[in-house]
Automatic annotation (TrEMBL):
Keywords: Membrane, Transmembrane, Transmembrane helix. The chain crosses the membrane at residues 15-33, 53-73, 85-106, 112-132. This is DUF3054 domain-containing protein. It comes from the Archaea.
Amino acid sequence: MDPQAFMKARLDRGAVPLAVGDVLALIVLLTVGTLNHVPASFLIDNPLHLPEVYAPFLIGWLLMAPLIGAYSAGAVETAKSSIPLVIRSWIPAAAIGFVLREFVFAGGASPVFVGIIFVTGLIALAGWRALYFKLRG
């Protein structure tokens, strides 16, 4: 299969709301986590801190989610098909984020942090998608 056909099968226009919601869910998760560890005054004095927190995980997400099919036609059909795709996408996306955070961006990737982000990321993404399909009806 050629790469264009492969990606075409992985991307569906109907998944745009899912993509926006996924990115927002990750940003909210990472923002809440950051605010639990640094005071708001630090963020005001260091306006690039939050983007540096987001970057490794959003890069991992943008690389893996389309490849795994988080935005395929199947992801748009039902929560039953969409949630497993978002979970399967988050695991390697988060792994890429941890590597980038450890070696490229500030922050590191302690084992406790890895465990918390894996689990809370799964909950945030799966929870968002469950809510999306419930509201969609």
